[in-house]
Write a structure and sequence with these properties.
alpha/beta, 3 domains, Alkaline Phosphatase, subunit A, 14 helices, eight-stranded mixed β-sheet, 480 residues, globular, two-stranded antiparallel ribbon
């Protein structure tokens, strides 16, 4: 048997050397081109693409899905025909959650609260939401929303990222990437979560709801905690003063910058940026969370929970204070609307906890001159069925998940106030008039921020991705 080393020396002719070396040089050249492409992704075309109506967004996301037929989409036929089966021509063959498996009866369930028309716009709002009803003329109700998802996590992910599976950038991350930050003292994208005090449902807040996906991680949302300091390590360790901390960060940044130039990894510059942001937040966050400067009447308007850290009321007030200081996208997520078996009790509790803070936020922004260029969005991942889940009339009756037609509302930021867009059928089952899909809503939000949703893209794994995937039309009828 020939010795491998001897065979290698024999095979290594001048021709073989030039051939193999050229492949190596080609690989180096290709690596350089890919490195330049990765760097070029950080430099977007001039944004915004056109004059924006909104500069910032506060998304009040209601995890678990509020019941549209009990809160906004008044359908008298449900009360008139309470207890009758919903017609097969309406609900036959439709997909619902597995919690309806084995339930043969689908009796129509009349709305729990009373409805009335409010304001000059005549918007129909439930008596469970008196503060929201009082500002109806500031709002635009979109009553023809529909989605493809029937379970919570994929449905929420779809609203946040434009895709059902986790891994894509969220809306706040896209805006941070496309429009950049407005302030050096607060993050461009902040997420806050809360849940009902009764812990009535098992909704989980996954980190990918405010993640950056395949975008550089500098664009992911900064999660503000509901207990203790909103961000960990706001205080310097004992024996470290601000001057020493500053010098340490400068030296660390120099080392990281040297390494970034050598290897071209964008995540190194993410670390530099996050260290700097953390340093500035050590000064800005304590001031942000100090409510002693808030007038008492403003605190009262947000409701009795406003001083309880981690409550929806507290987070709504923090959202106003964040956008006031330059945060571009605030994602306030509140769980507790998943009322399969407790609609009789929990719906009113949930409305009481969220009604005043939501309305107060809109009014507070308006009084401070911020509503004009701040878009507020309120809504969940789908609606609830017009028919009963469980035994009709039982204390534990409820409504199942319903993706076929539901309501969200928007305010400020270029939205036409005092309007209702779209409609569902007479049962509140399917969106039938001026239908609005998830990608349509996302395209509209981006449009209000001066972004053409088809042009805000990022190249990943050989394809250019966007928030709206390959769909989405701006809903022109809701624009002011």
């Amino acid at each position: 048997m020939t010795d491998p080393d001897v065979q290698l020396r024999a095979d290594l002719t001048r021709r073989a050397l030039l051939r193999d070396a050229s492949l190596g040089l080609g690989g180096l050249a290709l690596g350089g081109l890919l490195g330049r492409e990765a760097s070029a992704q950080e430099a977007l075309p001039a944004l915004p693409h056109f004059a924006p109506k909104a500069k910032r967004v506060i998304y009040l996301f209601q995890n678990g899905a509020p019941s549209h037929v009990d809160l906004f989409d008044w359908k008298p036929i449900l009360r008139q025909r309470h207890g009758e089966p919903i017609p097969d021509s309406v609900a036959g063959g439709k997909r619902f959650s597995t919690m309806l498996d084995g339930q043969s009866s689908r009796a129509m369930l009349g709305e729990l609260p009373d409805f009335a028309r409010h304001g000059e716009s005549g918007a129909t709002v439930s008596s469970f939401l008196p503060r929201t009803a009082a500002i109806a003329d500031r709002l635009c109700f979109v009553k023809s929303m529909h989605t493809t998802q029937v379970n919570h996590a994929p449905a929420i992910t779809y609203f946040m990222t434009g895709a059902e599976q986790a891994g894509r950038p969220t809306m706040g991350a896209w805006l941070s990437y496309g429009l950049g930050r407005m302030s050096d003292d607060v993050p461009a994208f902040v997420a806050m979560t809360s849940r009902d005090k009764e812990a009535s449902c098992g909704q989980i807040f996954y980190d990918f709801y405010w993640g950056s996906g395949f975008l550089p991680t500098v664009h992911q949302g900064v999660k503000f905690r509901g207990t203790g300091d909103p961000v960990l390590y706001l205080k310097d360790p004992a024996g470290i003063d601000r001057g020493l901390r500053r010098r340490m960060l400068d030296d660390l940044a120099a080392l990281n910058e040297k390494r970034a130039r050598e290897v071209g990894d964008p995540e190194i510059r993410t670390r530099i940026a996050q260290y700097e942001m953390a340093y500035r937040m050590q000064a800005s966050v304590p001031e942000l969370t100090d409510l002693s400067t808030e007038p008492e009447h403003v605190l009262e308007s947000y409701g009795p929970d406003v001083r309880r850290k981690g409550s929806f009321a507290y987070n709504c007030l923090m959202a106003r204070r964040l956008v006031e200081r330059g945060t571009r996208f605030v994602q306030v997520m509140h769980a507790g609307w998943d009322q399969h078996r407790n609609l009789n009790t929990q719906l009113e509790i949930q409305c009481t906890d969220t009604d005043a803070p939501s309305a107060a936020l809109v009014e507070d922004l308006a009084q401070r001159g911020l509503l004009e260029d701040t878009l507020v969005v309120w809504g969940g991942e789908f609606g609830r069925t017009p028919f009963c889940q469980g035994i009709l009339g039982a204390p534990n009756q409820g409504r199942d998940h319903h993706p076929y037609g539901f309501t969200v509302w928007m305010a400020g930021g270029g939205i036409k106030p005092g309007t209702t867009w779209g409609a569902t059928d007479e049962f509140g089952f399917s969106a039938t008039e001026d239908r609005v899909g998830v990608h349509d809503l996302q395209a509209t939000i981006l449009h209000l921020l001066g972004i053409d949703h088809e042009r805000l893209t990022y190249r990943f794994q050989g394809r250019r991705y966007r928030l709206t995937d390959v769909e989405g039309e701006v809903v022109r009828g809701v624009l002011g």
